[in-house]
Amino acid sequence: MSQPLLEVRDLSRRFGGLLAVDRVNFAVQPGEIFGLIGPNGAGKTTLFNVISGVTPPTGGSVFWRSQPISGQAPHRLNRLGLARTFQNLRLFDGLSVLENLLVALQRRPRSSALGGLLNSAGHQRAERQRLEAAWQLLEELGLTALAERQAGTLAYGDRRRLEMARALATGPSLLLLDEPAAGLNPAEKDQLCQLIGELRQRHQLTVMIIEHHVPLLMRLCNRMAVLDFGVRIALGTPEEVRRDPQVIEAYLGTGTGGSA
Amino acid sequence: MIDNGLLVQMLMGALLGLSVYLPLAAGQLSLATPAFYAVGGTLAALLSTRWSALGATANGGFPVPSLLLEMALGGVLAGLLALLVGRLVLRLQGIYLAIATIALVEIVRVAILNLPFTGGAVGIFAIPQPFDTAAGYLLPALALLALAGWLCQRLELMPLGRAMAAIRHDELAASCMGLDTTQVKLTAFVLSAMLAGSTGALAAHFLNTWNARQGSFDTSITTLAFVVLGGSRTWLGPVVGGLLLTALPELLRPVGDVRLVLFGLVILLGPVLAPQGLVTPALLERLGGWSLRSGASRKTENAQP
Questions:
Q1: SS3 A24
Q2: Could you tell me the domains of chain B?
Q3: Which residues of chain A are within 8 Å of residue B179 when distances are taken between CB atoms?
Q4: Cβ of B296 and A99 within 8 Å?
Q5: Distance (Å) from the C-alpha of residue A204 to the closest C-alpha of chain B?
Q6: Which of A12, A78, B54, B271 could pair with A59 in a Cys bridge, judged by C-beta atoms 3.0 to 4.6 Å apart?
Q7: Which of B170, B296, B304 sits opposite A102 (nearest CB)?
């Protein structure tokens, strides 16, 4: 196997008496779509938070192209090529859709503050490039008509897509999607599924995705990991995971306790 | 009713309002403006009375270039102090940052009161005058305000200003989008301090005397009121707030002691009647011409393929 893009080794995160993530191991290969499922409270979002630098780990480490990255600030990790969306949507609500993307495009390309103040030719060129990239992304995600709208006023599905556009605008190689299909209707879920596939192709992305909707993941993912009470209980292709007795137990419970 | 002296004070009020606005535009409630104002003022008072090379004359005159140099130095010194202090206090958020910055104001005030060379409670007096009349101060005050306004206007159309707005909305999301939020906040804080420092240097000459009372907690609250009443969504808000609230107590002088009650009422009723302040982006859009918030998006229409 080639060098993994992201590797998590014995990663733990403890909140007081609660071990939210318990010595989790897995590696994400370049180009794959890697799913992360588990019942509510299994530690999926905490794991994302640790990987993206929002929460420091209490044990173990994260490696990016074999370099240790745990404990680094979120903006540093983003600059390495790791971008994320948020389950509970954290857009810049008061800014326009376009401005949300321009914020994320700050460094693509970089331009000097002095040039910006003096409105230099270099600054204008950089701004044009940022705008082009922003419009491009808006088109890819079907948000062009909403460009001037305030992000906070968008419909739910549009805001979900804007979250993805904003993360993509930072130019990541790994995109972490935290429940991108939450709250979407079945038709929208289908579209999203297709969209993620397309975006992966076009932006040469590796995607790591948390999702509750298991059929969607089964269709989308190359491999997936299953968390339960912070422990990784399964890892493999969707087919392998589906047949794993531990996974069945975590989702459906054991037969012994029920009415049998 | 409004004489030149009051006009100068109004302009300086607008400048201090902008100094509070800049960190606030990045979501940081800093009340440190009076501390930096005091630092700039004290520096100018000391330099012009002690350092003869600046050219203070025996009859209290002072060359204008020296005044400009002092304003620059006041800005730089205040900026350096902000750089030093900002690293520490900007780790705090919301009301905790406000309290830490109030502490800074107190530390600076007590330091100026007790340092052996700042004149104690009496302060430094007979600060030389670059202009014979108050009208002379209008020009440097206006120039500084124009510079600050231009800076704020440019910020809206460049990455730094956008980063500040993003942090104001959601700091965590901003950092996950690759923004070094600490650096952005620090930059806003330093710019704010430089503005207050330069204003202080100008004020020291204008007021003729300078003492520790010039930068106190009271000023923190007054300058914050400029922003609250004027509005914090565009830079014109604090300018309008600063101009109005500086003029108001003087304009109300004819009604006697009741004026302070009226002044308090205005500050109280302002946020009730205009929660977003007097100047809002929506208002500016209606007035046309000024396209502050929408400037970025308007430009983009051409860029759409």
A1: strand
A2: 4-303 (1.10.3470)
A3: 75, 103, 106
A4: yes
A5: 19
A6: A12
A7: B296
Flag if A116 and B163 touch (Cβ within 8 Å): no
Strand order in the sheet with A33-37: A82-84, A174-178, A206-210, A33-37, A223-228, A231-236
Which residue from A minimizes the CA distance to B153? A117
Note the pLDDT tens digit of each residue in A156-191.
Answer: 999 999 999 999 999 999 999 999 998 888 898 999
* C-alpha pair distances (Å), A56 with each of A8, A22, A47, A61, B4: 13, 14, 10, 10, 58
The ranges of chain A with pLDDT < 50 are: 257-260
ipTM over 0.95: no
Residue A125 contacts B, CB cutoff 8 Å: no
pTM of the model: 0.91
Phi (first) and psi of residue A82, to 5 degrees? -120, 115
As averages over each run of 10 residues, the pLDDT of chain B (305 residues) reads 90 97 96 97 94 82 92 98 95 92 95 91 90 94 97 94 96 96 96 98 95 89 91 94 91 83 84 87 78 45 45
A109 cis-preceded (ω within 30 degrees of 0): yes
